[in-house]
Amino acid sequence: MDIALLLFDGLTALDAVGPYEVLWRIPGARVLLVAPEAGMVVTTEGTMALRADRSIDGLARADVLVVPGGFGTRKLESDEKVLAWVKRLDATTTITASVCTGALVLGAAGLLSGKRATTHWALRERLARHGAIVVEDRVVIDGKYASAAGVSAGIDLALLLAARLANETVAKTIQLGIEYDPQPPFDCGSPWKADEAIVKAVRERVGGYAPK
Amino acid sequence: MDIALLLFDGLTALDAVGPYEVLWRIPGARVLLVAPEAGMVVTTEGTMALRADRSIDGLARADVLVVPGGFGTRKLESDEKVLAWVKRLDATTTITASVCTGALVLGAAGLLSGKRATTHWALRERLARHGAIVVEDRVVIDGKYASAAGVSAGIDLALLLAARLANETVAKTIQLGIEYDPQPPFDCGSPWKADEAIVKAVRERVGGYAPK
Fold it and tell me: What is the ipTM of this complex?
């Protein structure tokens, strides 16, 4: 089973590595790290760098496609070459998934029209503009399309995908292996739970993604 | 504020990237990616690769040191050069932290003797051999030493460190920014919650770390 994970300049590292850490553990799975050009991609803040083993030109099919997010998706939303590849690959997958603003790339490729989907809480309006039916859940699955909310939600998404691609025992074994028994120190991980001033600060920074 | 994150061949990507994604967001923080040799390090399973910007020889001090885990720590536990560097750097830090089997490296460097600490649940006996007082909590803080349980626990650890290094508002803002409102699909992330057969399977794989 080939799982294509799209890397790109300006991605958020955890968006990609959360799902990666779960998906490579599925027996028989092979995670292919692919980017517009093979080689290094640098993250949003420009310090951490990950290696893409192949270019999108070098990958014509996959069983699963995962598109992570990050401020770099803003550029991808109008990158015709990448969007065409996403559409082509999607035609070969049984599951096409996104984390955070990766949903905006799927949306820009026209894949989420009329589909239920989610993204980072501060950018849901932008996802709706691509024709998606925005759902305020952490993970949303509509047929073969699976989307996760912001950044860390990719771990929850990937465990659900592991159950679907393999079975529940495999997913549970992976969850125990990565000791995913989260204990967030604060109860403020969603805008419904956090203080208003903090919600405002994050919305200004992340929502600044949207064009003026 | 300089935060040194130690990378090495055989690390588990999420052990490093979970804390990274939190710590770089602290205002004024600079995360330095350091490895025994500058250049690429490859993860446990040998597919994902991260770039280390500098070698340990090139870094003499830091405010914070974070050592992630992975099967590669088995080798580091007897790597005199790395252990000597960890000790030297620790003499300059205000916080020295570990994720998963990173605690075994701090232990092998002699830093956890008589200290309360934790590691991946399947390797706690091995940590005790380094003289640590093993505590079965997700994050354990004893003075300047902070340790997290397996893999994903590095996110919880890093948010606590953000509160300590900056303040609670900063930590909460980061938590909301990465939408860390986890909803694990199964309730099996610790050995006390998972089915016996699954615990056995993971213990055999991860516990295989220990020498015969």
Answer: 0.96
